[in-house]
């Protein structure tokens, strides 16, 4: 169980990173200046800006928002399961 949880945590974290980079790209296409030097610190800010921008444009959150947040949450949950079952 512990190995499965660790593998799933890494897969979830990998997909969260991919979705985050896709969101950063979308936000930069909409004219937001991206600070690449501090990108790790500002990812949460850019995800929130993506949510606000897409809500303003379409009235709904963008298609990348929920998979990104869900990936981070599932990575956290699987990491906790791994630590408990170890």
Written as H for each helix and E for each strand, in order along the chain, the element string is HHH
Q: Quick check: average pLDDT?
A: 96
Quickly count the helices.
3
Gyration radius over CA? 15 Å
How many domain units? 1
Overall morphology: elongated
Query: Uncertain regions: pLDDT < 50 for 5+ in a row?
Result: none
Largest sheet: none
Number of strands: 0
Query: Structural class, from secondary structure content?
Result: mainly alpha
Strand content: under 5%
Q: How far apart, in Å, are the first and last alpha carbons? A: 8 Å
Helix proportion range: over 70%
Question: Can you walk me through this structure?
Answer:
The chain has helices at 2-29, 39-58, 65-85. The protein is mostly helical. The chain has one domain (2-85). The longest helix has 28 residues, at 2-29.
Describe what is shown at a glance.
The chain has helices at residues 2-29, 39-58, 65-85.
């Amino acid at each position: 169980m512990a190995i499965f949880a660790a593998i799933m945590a890494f897969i979830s974290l990998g997909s969260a990173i991919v979705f985050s980079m896709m969101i950063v790209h979308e936000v930069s296409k909409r004219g937001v200046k991206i600070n690449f030097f501090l990108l790790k610190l500002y990812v949460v800010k850019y995800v929130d800006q993506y949510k606000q921008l897409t809500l303003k444009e379409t009235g709904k959150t963008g298609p990348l928002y929920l998979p990104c947040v869900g990936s981070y949450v599932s990575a956290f949950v699987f990491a906790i399961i791994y630590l408990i079952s170890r």
